[in-house]
Design brief:
The chain contains 8 helices and 8 strands, in the order αβββαβαβαβαβαβαα. With 202 residues, the protein is an alpha/beta fold. It is globular. Bound molecules: magnesium ion.
């Protein structure tokens, strides 16, 4: 479902929230098992920095995963993503994306979703901007408005955020601020957000 650049920019301009699948999007889809059977995940610091940039520019970032894993909570905490915007164990991603949008008071046209595999298709179908990493499943690639050049866990998220901020005329200013040493992006690493009391462990 490749769309013209002008249509892509039009969709990206409306985005106020970017919701990300985790495995295969924020990670390269590898699940590394530790000695006690716990799954370890690796994340891209560059994707993380782009998420901080998006938040600084007033774009909300949320996570929507079919699995449940402790590293996701830790990564969300490091990125300053509040627990109410972290959905794990989702069995119906379109419903959960709708719920997230409602929670933010946003129309789905203002929500971008990035996914990589079949369970993401329903959410991709309703998101204002549907994007996937370069190495997403073929069935997903053909249903997205934008297929990234970068693969999952290696810059795809940064690419989508840059696309959104660029369409909104804000990316170049950020690059220039970085060049001149005036770009300030808060690091909330290890910040223990109490959120609103909700918890995603249920
Ligand atoms: Mg996935």
């Amino acid at each position: 479902m490749a769309i013209r650049r002008a249509e892509l920019v039009r969709r990206a301009r409306r985005v106020r929230a970017v919701v990300l699948d985790v495995d295969g999007v924020l990670t390269d889809a590898q699940l590394i098992y530790g000695p006690r059977g716990e799954a370890l995940k690796s994340f891209s610091a560059r994707d993380g920095f782009a998420i901080k940039l998006a938040q600084r520019e007033g774009i909300t970032v949320g996570l929507l995963s079919g699995r449940v894993a402790a590293p996701v909570r830790a990564r969300a905490r490091d990125l300053g993503i509040p627990p109410r915007l972290v959905v794990q164990g989702s069995g119906a991603k379109a419903d959960d994306l709708r719920r997230l949008a409602a929670r933010l008071g946003l129309d789905l046209a203002a929500v971008a979703f990035v996914g990589d595999d079949l369970p993401d298709l329903p959410a991709l179908a309703i998101a204002g901007l549907a994007a996937c990493p370069a190495d997403a499943a073929a069935e997903v690639r053909e249903r997205c408005h934008h297929v990234c050049v970068a693969p999952g866990g290696h810059g795809a998220v940064r690419e989508v955020i840059a696309l959104v901020l660029e369409a909104q005329g804000r990316w170049q200013g950020l690059v220039e601020a970085a060049r001149s040493g005036t770009l300030r992006v808060g690091h909330s690493d290890r910040r223990r957000s109490k959120g609103d009391g909700r918890d995603d462990r249920a």
